[in-house]
Amino acid sequence: MDKETPRQLDADTRSLLDSVPTQLFLGGKWCDAEGSGTFPVIDPSTGDVLTRVADARPVDAMRALDAATAAQKSFAAAAPRERGELLRSVWQAISEHADDLARLMTLEMGKALPESRAEVSYGGEFFRWFSEEAVRVAGRFTQAPAGNGRILVTRQPVGPVLAITPWNFPLAMGTRKIGPALAAGCPIIVKPASATPLTMLYLAKLMQDAGLPEGVLSVLPSSSSSEVTQPLLDDPRLRKLTFTGSTEVGRSLVEKSAHGLLRTSMELGGNAPFVVFDDADVDAAVAGATLAKMRNGGEACTAANRFHVDNAVRDEFTTKLTDKLREYVLGPGLDPDTTLGPLVNADQRNKVDELVRDAVDKGATPVLGGTVPDGPGFFYPATVLTDVPADARILKEEVFGPVVAIRGFDGEDEGVAAANDTEYGLAAYVYTRDLDRALRVAENIESGMVGVNRGVLSDTAAPFGGIKASGFGREGGIEGIDEYLETKYIALTD
């Protein structure tokens, strides 16, 4: 089959795809891209084209910024309750269309349908959470210490926002940015990943139907992110950049935005350690490791990347975890028997395979998986490597796939040192029965988030973000809206 021709699909799937707008969403209006260019969206389970969407150009980006700038004053002046009710209405719409969103996400990203359903629930919650935070933006009023006046502190929206989102969570990484931006009173331009634009376009349709004010949201799918975003970063009307993606791209964006002194928040790459101490409940650690590794097929920045296990329990942990991962069924994400879908594209699968081969060549022992299966699609099986040497790339680079790399250690100090042996600092996981040790290790691990005796730590009510090369700024929680607000001090005389 011609890979550039949309493939034949069953009636329900074709109907779903036909319901998704494929044009640009510019400030509340659907329109073709300048020059009417399009690019294909690929099904990771087959490598075939699902559909084609409008390919935004720089002039389209400026039209979106024009709309955002025009809407800024009136939207900022809208009642907080009004903005909150808009977000709540969209959350309800997401809940009502959960099945379609989940299927659409699986079609374009590949993940197993249960994973997509979980993301729809998680992603929608950011709109519900920030619908409640919209009315809780607070300042303060106090007497000056010298007694010669009053201090008034207010919070105001930062202004038009550019959000660049990744392909691994096509809904949630957008809602985690759109929710607080709109709650704070900021129009937002979203540039979704070219691999997965359909979910965000469908969300824009739901938001339009929910009564989204004109100019407040634009969605710009594009095959060339840098070409579209650069004129926005160069324009002084843009006041904030928020990005989720690789550290390499994040560093470049920070440099490009520096001349305009943009407010920036960067949620970048991870290399999460999963540390199992000798006193851990091994069965609980295995259950947690399965979640921390296999959620989203391993394609998550919070995914456990390096498994540091005390040598006293390493063999038991390895055997039990391998048995658990052996149960995963590899297949197309929409297949009801599938528990592990394909990776998003050939490049991602090839990178995972390259990291596994490097580790094995340097002495790691594969005890499960480790080879690319025959056939179409971008599949990679659940894989376990043990005795991974210290110089293996897989311990230094983000895997973004269903691969467990196990390395032993002796004693708490060695375990903490191993966990911190990375430039990244997004998430970490610790298993121990000793509460004192748990708190001590959690404080000493260099990471923005630490899960203690649990394999999933993302929560809409908690601040999400990292340190070191994993970025700066926080999303979610009561802290999440701060990224979209300026603090103004007004001095008053008695």
Describe this structure in words.
- By secondary structure, the protein is α/β, with parallel strands linked by helices.
- The radius of gyration is 23 Å and the shape is globular.
- It has 14 helices and 22 strands.
- 51% of the residues are buried.
- The model has no long low-confidence stretch (mean pLDDT 96).
- It has two domains: 11-268 and 471-490, Aldehyde Dehydrogenase, Chain A, domain 1 (3-Layer(aba) Sandwich), CATH 3.40.605; 272-459, Aldehyde Dehydrogenase, Chain A, domain 2 (3-Layer(aba) Sandwich), CATH 3.40.309.
- The chain has helices spanning 11-18, 58-77, 80-96, 98-109, 113-133, 172-184, 198-209, 225-234, 247-258, 282-294, 314-325, 346-361, 412-419, 435-444; strands at residues 24-26, 29-31, 38-42, 49-54, 140-143, 150-157, 161-164, 188-191, 217-219, 240-244, 263-267, 272-276, 304-310, 365-368, 383-386, 403-409, 424-425, 427-431, 449-452, 467-468, 471-472, 485-492.
Q: What structural class is derived from the secondary structure elements?
A: alpha/beta
Identify the overall geometry: globular
Largest sheet properties: 7 strands, mixed
Oligomer state equals: single chain
The CATH architecture of the largest domain can be given as 3-Layer(aba) Sandwich
SS strand fraction: 15-25%
Cα radius of gyration in angstroms: 23 Å
Work out the helix count: 14
Q: Spatial order of the strands in the main sheet?
A: 14-15-16-13-12-18-19
* Residue runs with pLDDT of under 50 for 5 or more positions: none
Helix content: 25-40%
Number of strands: 22
